Amino acid sequence: MRKNILYCSSVILALSGYATSANRPNVVLIVVDDLGWTDLSCYGSDLYQTPAIDRMAKEGVRFTNGYAACTVSSPTRAAIMTGKYPARLHCTDWIAGHKKPHAKLKVPDWTQFMSHDEYTLAEALADNGYTTLHVGKWHLGEGEKYWPENHGFSVNIGGWDVGAPQKKNGGNGYFPPYRNPRLSDGPEEEYLTERLTDEVLNLLEKHSKAGQPVFLNMWFYNVHTPLQAKKEKVEKYKKTTNPGAKHRNPVYAAMVEHVDNAVERILAKLVELKIDDNTLVIFTSDNGGLVGNFENNRQHVTSNFPLRSGKGDRYEGGVRVPFIVKLPGINKGRVDDTPVISTDIYPTILGFTGIRSSSLVDGTDLTSLLKKRIPLQRKAIYWHYPHYHLEGAVPYSAIRKGDWKLIYTYEDDQIELYNLKKDIAESQNLIKRNPEKAKELFNDLNNWKASVNAQMPVENPGFIPELEKKWSFELKQSAK
Length: 480
Hints:
By secondary structure, the protein is of the alpha/beta class. The chain has helices at residues 51-59, 73-82, 86-89, 121-126, 192-207, 231-238, 250-272, 316-319, 345-352, 367-372, 435-451, 465-468, 471-479, and strands at residues 12-13, 26-32, 61-63, 66-67, 105-106, 131-136, 155-157, 214-219, 279-285, 323-326, 334-336, 340-341, 355-356, 381-385, 396-401, 404-409, 414-419, 458-459. The chain is globular, with a radius of gyration of 22 Å.
């Protein structure tokens, strides 16, 4: 048993409602990779078609202020699995991160894996009688010892080191060969998302009849690049794409529809197995939508408008995401504007399933908000990204408190203050008009960073401004 099993004594059966594991609800957690806040019809897309997810939203709770714990993938996934902020975990960038040896600041020596000292969501559920199943992306450490089966999952299909379908060493990305050690190749016309969904349906068929509750962790590779989809779907959107629309990439649109088709099949399977009325379903994304960096001649991918920027940046477009919860026994949906974040998933699932744990978490159990609409007592949520990213982020920290958001950028000691209720696009920096509010949030942010022992960037003795100006040139230099 690993070190984290020391937490086992702190996990006890809740006595209210779930006397045995067999009575506990099943849990389906769906995480889409790089799905932006407006990438669903129910969140305002003017191209992408998502009728199944829209239906789920109408039957559940759709949060309009849902957030990812980080602007990139791996830290958010670690936050979901532990309930802790990436800053506390020191897992603060995608694994293995961009290398910028000539940048103004030197990034900290961060943790490029999810530590086995953490008592994961899967381990907590497994210790309380759940069958734990992982299907899809993982991206939480290099080497098999960090894969899902060594973090509490009894089954792992498709989860390993990398964060995107492989288009190197003979791999074809979303079509076989996958070059994935946890997924065998199918016929050449097979599409990865459809294949993984087939695997999910087979697992539900098998394990839902075994007398134990099931935790299914379905983490799509869609809609991460490379942009690939089945031809017939792409052709469909080529015929309906409006050049002046917010969303106008037909391949990306097809990839979103592949996700919606998969969700439809999974929800239908729950109905077929007669377990839908005892299954909690959570749907979200790991970071904001990838816009595409035009200065480097990269293709347009999606738009997060009216949000500013996208994946890999410090603004709302990088961290605000769809967040939908479908609860057993509730078939009338509602829209909730409470700010919620990836770290909330861990305590919410444990709270909803009647499992109590004294493990330290930063997230908040949303069960009372979901069931009884009892407002959260949380004052603020936070981000800390002491790294650089190709899509625009420089080392920064941020806080959202009420309608206010403050961003602190380390390179130039810049503070930005926005009122998101009045200015969701973060277009007007209100720092000069509201110095007292800025001081309040800045102090709160600093106190939080100290409380989680956040790692800080430092002055870089290798800073060379001439090389820093050219990202592509710098990458070549750092690779030598």
